[in-house]
Amino acid sequence: MSLSSKSAQEISELLDEYGIKHGPVVDSTRSLYEKKLKEAMAKEKRAKPSPDKTYYREEEEQVTYVYKTPVRSDSSGDSGAYMRARPEWAEREYEHETSNSRYSRSRPEYKGRDFVDEPYMYDSPDTYKHSYLKSAAPMKSSESAPKAAKSSPLIPLWVQFVFFLAMAVFLYLVFTNMETNESLKGIE
Amino acid sequence: MSSTSQKHKDFVAEPMGEKTVMALAGIGEVLGKRLEEKGFDKAYVVLGQFLVLKKDEELFRDWLKDTCGANVKQQGDCYGCLKEWCDAFL
């Protein structure tokens, strides 16, 4: 597919395909348009591999999401009326996991669907509120987990652990020093 | 608004006639020589190219950069000069 062998008409059509604004393809403008077409084609080729990467990231996020769901379903299995709703919830969660929408978007969407669930569970509004509160708590914890996972590229996880341990040791030392002061006062 | 040079003011003040390519704002001796080598020996030939590119700024800038290696400032000066001339006389 060499551009120089194409006719002026073909070059013009290709420029239109790529959405490149252009004038007539004459001798003095031809080399410029060929160069622009080459750049546009190269950009297209670069654009193709990146969706795979985003898909991979979505898969990662979906994996963490799957891990959290058993916790929620177990915690929400309290009332009898709930037993009916639980498979519905599990199905809906599963639909969200398999969908290729962005993770950040699926969160508010899910909360929106909780409100939609209300008419279906009108026979037991208390259990609904109970379930919503319960869902809010694990959802917040699961939100913090992906956020922590996101921060790992910036700061390595082991550094965070080391820092946390150092802080804990430091606080322990401070606390023990405070105790010895109190003991001195007790002696007096 | 960026201030225009004396060269710019001189060029847009009158019809370009047979002025050389170096009369254009942004085009000095070095760039002028390169344009002449490519066949653009008069200002009106560059004007012709400007019009064939439909007076589009991005296309003209790219063309100028490819043809004589003008930098961003030089491209802008030349484009502005020709555009204003066209607004006045074309």
Automatic annotation (TrEMBL), chain A:
SMART domains: LEM. The keyword Transmembrane applies. The keyword Transmembrane applies. Residues 40-57, 85-99 have a biased composition (Basic and acidic residues). Residues 1-44 form the LEM domain. Keywords: Membrane, Transmembrane, Transmembrane helix. Residues 40-110 are annotated as: Disordered. Pfam families: LEM. The chain crosses the membrane at residues 154-175. It comes from the Eukaryota. This is Emerin isoform X1.
TrEMBL record, chain B:
Its main location: nucleus. SUPFAM superfamilies: Barrier-to-autointegration factor, BAF. One of its GO terms (biological process) is chromosome organization. It is found in: Chromosome; Cytoplasm; Nucleus envelope. InterPro entries: BAF, BAF_prot, BAF_sf. One of its GO terms (molecular function) is DNA binding. Keywords: Chromosome, Cytoplasm, DNA-binding, Nucleus. GO terms for cellular component: condensed chromosome; cytoplasm; nuclear envelope. Belongs to the BAF family. PANTHER family: BARRIER TO AUTOINTEGRATION FACTOR 2 (PTHR47507), BARRIER-TO-AUTOINTEGRATION FACTOR (PTHR47507:SF5). This is Barrier-to-autointegration factor. It comes from Parambassis ranga.
